[in-house]
Amino acid sequence: MNIVVCVKQVPDTALERKLKPGDATLDRAAVDGLINELDEYAIEEGLRIAEAQRDAGADAEVTILTMGPEKAAESIRKALSMGADKAVHLVDDGLAGSDALSTSYALAKVLSGAGFDLVICGSESTDARMGVMAAMLAERLGVPQLSLASKVDTDGSVIRVRRATDEGYDEAEASLPAVISVVEKINEPRYPSFKGIMAAKKKPVATLSLADAGIEPDAVGLLSAATEVVDFAERPPRQAGTIVKDEGDGGVKIAEFLAGQKFI
Amino acid sequence: MAEVLVVAEHTAGEVKKATFELLTAARRFGEPAVVWAGPGAEDGQQRLAEFGAALIYAAADPGFDDYVVVPVAELLAQLVRDKAPTLVLVAGTAEGKEVAARLAVKTDSGLITDAVDLTPGDDGNPVAEQSIFGGATVVRSRVTRGTPVVAMRPNSVSPEPAPGTAEISPVTLAGQMTGARITGRVAAERSQRPELTEASIVVSGGRGTGGAEGFAVVEKLADALGAAVGASRAVTDAGWYPHQFQVGQTGKTVSPQLYMAVGISGAIQHRAGMQTSKMIVAINKDPEAPIFELADFGVVGDLFKVVPQLLDEIGRRKQV
Ligand SMILES: Cc1cc2nc3c(=O)[nH]c(=O)nc-3n(C[C@H](O)[C@H](O)[C@H](O)COP(=O)(O)OP(=O)(O)OC[C@H]3O[C@@H](n4cnc5c(N)ncnc54)[C@H](O)[C@@H]3O)c2cc1C
Ligand SMILES: Nc1ncnc2c1ncn2[C@@H]1O[C@H](COP(=O)(O)O)[C@@H](O)[C@H]1O
After folding, report:
1. Closest approach of chain A CAs to the CA of B307, in angstroms?
2. What angle do CA B306, B312, B316 make, to 5 degrees?
3. Angle between helix A100-114 and helix B94-107 axes, rounded to 10 deg
C-alpha cells in the first residue's frame, strides 16, 4: 500500500508570529519552523497503517509530501526519523504566497504524478488554520474524502473511519484510493529513536521544482491567489485586567464583577 | 437585486443560530437565498423568514445525510452556476469549511475561512475580517476571483431580524450522489444547555478540577449562569468530559460575550479557541498561569472554594 502523508512546516506557535508589511505573507524566516504538530498524528497513523499492512503480509510504504521553502527539509528529516520511508519536497520560489486553492492544485499534481492508495493530512495547520486541504485534495483528485478521523481501519481495499462531528461522530467508509485527515485524539505520535535518526540520513528525498512536477507557474504563487489582503493591523495587546488574590471573598468579588457587567 | 446564497445549518428541522448570523451578514450584499440540503425546509421556513430570507432553495432528498460533504458541495456548485450569486456564505464549522473548500475548487473561487465580520468595501464587494495568530493580528481580505466563498466563525455577527418571504423553491441535485458513505451516526446526548459555539456565556473547566467529580462544579456554575460548558484538552483526554466540548486549536472555537476559565492554565492551543471572547474571567490557584494575561478579571485561588462561594452569591442575588 502506497501511503502519502502531507506534512507542512509551520512557525513555532509558541513564538510571536507576524505578517510581512510588503506582501502581507507570513514572515516564515523570522521564526523557527517545526512540523505542524497536527501532522505528527498523520505521520503516526500512516506508520501504524503501514505496519499493520506489513504484518498482514502486504507491501507498504510511507512517503512524506511537503510543499515549502528549503528550510522545510528539516521537518522532512524529522518525519523520516519517525519512520517514514521516503519523501518528496516540492520547493520553488514560484510557490511563495500560494493560497489554499493553489496549494491544493500543486499538491494534487504531485500526488497524481506519483500515485497513491491513501493520502493522510493533519486536521489543520497551526498557521493558516483553514482545515480545508483534505477536502480540496479529494475534490481535485476525484477520490473519496474521509476527514476528521479519530479512528481508522483498513484492510487495504476498504477504509472505515470514525469522523468527528459537532454532535458526536459518524461512521463512514469508502474504497481506496482515498484522502483522509486525522484529529489529535487518534494516536500518540512516537518520538524518533536514535536508530531512526541515523537511518533517516540515508533515506531518499526527491526535490521537485515546478517544472519537475508539471505545475503551471501561473497557477501558483502570490499572483495566482484568488484572495488578497486589503490591510492588516496588530491588535493592541489586551488591556491588563484586574487580578485579585482570594482572601476568602474571591467568589463574591467575581459576582460583583459579573453584576457590574450585567451578566448576573 | 443580487442574490447571496446562505447554507442553512439544521438538525431535525431546527435551524441553528449560525444561520441567522449568516442571513444578517448576507443582507449587506443582496437578497439572501437559503440553501437547504435534506428534508424539513418547511419546518425552518418561518424562522428563516424572520431573519430576512427571500428564498429557500430546498433540496429535499434525504440522501444528503448519507454521504460525507460531497453532495452538498455539488448542490452549491450547481446553484452557483444556475443563479450566479454574488457571494456564498457558510457557517465556519469544521464541516462547513470542508463544504466551502470543495465549492471553491469546483468553481475556482477564492475562499476565506474564519471570518469574524464581513462588510462591503469601497466597491461594494465583501471585505472579510479575520483574527489570526490567536487574535494578535487583524487581517482584512477580499476575494479576487470567482464567486466569493466565505465561512464565518459562529457567534461573530449578532443576528438581527428582518422580514423576508422565505418562499420555498424546490431544487434537485443533477447527477448521482457520490462520496464516502456514512454508515452510522452517533450523537452524544443533547443537554438542555445552550450549544457551545452559540452560547453567549461559556464556562470551561480544566485539569484543576481534578476529575469527573470535581468537574461537576463547572457544570453547576454554567447552569447558574445559563451558560454552555466547555473543557480543556487535559479534561477531554482524561475522559472527564466528552470530546465535543473541547475548546481550543483542535476543539471548538468560541467567541462568547463571557468566557470563564476554571482551573485552566491557558496553554497556547487552548487560547487559540477562546481568545476572541469579549470578556474573560479566570480562576486559578497559580498566579503565574498564562490565562491571567488574557483575563479581564481573575481570582488567584482554589476553585473549590471560589466557585461554591460564587454560586452562593449568584443565588443570593437572584433572590433579591
Ligand atoms: C496538537 C495539540 C493540540 C492541542 N489542542 C488543544 C485544544 O484544542 N484545547 C486545549 O485546551 N488544549 C489543547 N492542547 C493541550 C494544551 O497544550 C494544554 O496541555 C491543555 O490546554 C492544558 O489543559 P489545562 O489547562 O486544563 O491543564 P493544565 O495545564 O495542567 O492546567 C491546570 C491548571 O489548573 C490550576 N489548578 C489546579 N488545581 C486548582 C485548584 N484547586 N483551583 C484553581 N486552579 C487549580 C493549575 O494552577 C493549572 O494552571 C493541545 C496540545 C497539542 C500538542
Ligand atoms: N504546504 C503544504 N505541504 C504539505 N501539506 C500541507 C501543506 N499545507 C497544508 N498541508 C496539509 O493539509 C493539512 C491542513 O492544512 P490547512 O488546510 O492549511 O489547515 C495540514 O495538516 C497538512 O497535512
Report:
1. 6
2. 140
3. 80
**Residue of A37, A121, A137, A208 to mutate, ligand 2, most atoms within 8 A of C-beta:** A121
Backbone angles phi and psi of A200, in degrees to 5:
-60, -30
Last residue of a domain, one of B170, B190, B210: B170
For chain A, the domain total comes to 1
What is the model's pTM? 0.93
pLDDT-derived band at B137 (thresholds 50, 70, 90) equals confident
Which burial class, exposed, middle or buried, applies to B294 when counting CB atoms under 10 A from its CB (0-12, 13-18, 19+)?
buried
**A227 in Cβ contact with B142 (< 8 Å):** yes
CB B46 within 8 A of CB B157: no
Q: Residue B18 sits in which domain range?
A: 3-170
Range list of H helices, B139-290 = 212-225, 233-237, 268-271
Helix (H, G, I), strand (E, B) or coil at B293: helix
Contact A32, A171 (CB under 8 A): no
Kind and range of the H or E run holding B303: helix B303-319
Q: Is B298 in the pocket of ligand 1 (CB under 6 A)?
A: no
Residues with Cβ within 8 Å of residue A142, at least 6 apart in sequence = none
Beta-carbon-side half-sphere exposure of residue A19 (alpha carbons within 13 Å)? 22
Do B232 and B292 belong together in one domain? yes
Query: Distance between CA B223 and CA B107 in Å, rounded?
Result: 45
Q: Are B253 and B235 in contact (CB under 8 A)?
A: no
Give A138-184 pLDDT, tens digit per residue.
Answer: 999 999 999 999 999 999 999 999 999 888 899 999 999 999 999 99
Centre of ligand 1 to C-alpha B105, Å, is 37
Query: How many Cβ pairs closer than 8 A exist between chain A and B?
Result: 270
Q: CA-CA distance, B277 to B260, in Å (whole number)? A: 10
Q: Is B133 left (phi over 0), alpha (psi -120 to 50) or beta?
A: left
| CATH code, domain carrying A209 | 3.40.50.620
B111 touches B101 (CB < 8 A):
yes
Instruction: Answer whether residue B190 is part of any domain.
Output: no
Q: Is the pLDDT of residue A53 over 90?
A: yes
Q: What is the dihedral of CA B151, B155, B161, B164, to 10 degrees?
A: 20
Q: For A57-134, where are the E strands, in sequence order?
A: 61-67, 86-90, 118-122
- What pLDDT was estimated at residue A26? 82
How buried is residue B295: exposed, middle or buried, by Cβ count under 10 Å (0-12/13-18/19+)?
Answer: buried
Q: Does A253 touch chain B (CB under 8 A)?
A: yes
Reported as half-sphere exposure (CB side, CA atoms, 13 A), residue B282 has a value of 31
ipTM for the assembly: 0.93
In a domain, residue B180? The reply is no
Q: Bridge partners of A180?
A: A120, A146
The Cα–Cα gap between B244 and B252 comes to: 8
Handedness of CA B27, B30, B36, B40 (dihedral sign): positive
